[in-house]
Design a protein that fits this description.
Distance between the termini: 88 Å
Largest sheet: 4 strands, mixed
Order of helices and strands: HEEEEEEE
Radius of gyration: 28 Å
Strand order of the largest sheet: 1-6-7-5
Structural class: alpha+beta
Shape: rod-shaped
Strand content: 25-35%
Number of helices: 1
Helix content: 40-55%
Number of domains: 1
């Protein structure tokens, strides 16, 4: 083999080695970036869930503590982190279900009738012996 062909072969091999290292670094950096994006989305969703549960719980607790005749309104966002969700009441807990995950937040009373509906204006009223939730 002549020196010229050996030089071309060595150059080609070096190029493939450098390209392989570059490609490996690109794959690793893409994987790290993707995992960080997922982590940020997970924490953002958690913050949105906490905000909705805190707001709903505070409105219900305020209505209960203010006494008979007190009414307040609560409008929940239609979607949470781009997904549909439900907000149910079970005993003295608010149960937010997002896809397959459930989040809980206690309330001061379990005497609650009605349902909190996302995207609607929910009227929360103290009727003396219980809290009633209706949509207007």
């Amino acid at each position: 083999m002549s020196a010229s062909k050996r030089f071309k072969a060595q150059s080609a091999l070096e190029f493939m080695l450098i390209f392989g290292i570059f490609l490996g670094a690109l794959v690793i950096s893409t994987w790290v970036s993707w995992s960080k994006i997922r982590e940020v989305n997970y924490y953002q969703t958690g913050l949105e869930v906490d905000d909705i549960l805190d707001t709903a719980s505070e409105k219900i607790n305020t209505a209960w503590l203010e006494g008979h005749g007190f009414t307040t309104n609560l409008t929940l966002p239609e979607k949470l982190a781009g997904f549909n969700y439900t907000l149910n009441i079970s005993g003295n807990y608010l149960v937010l279900t997002l896809e397959t995950t459930q989040y809980l937040k206690p309330t001061v009373t379990e005497n609650i009738t009605g349902a909190l509906i996302p995207g609607k204006t929910n009227a929360i009223s103290n009727l003396g012996d219980h809290i009633e939730i209706s949509q207007s």
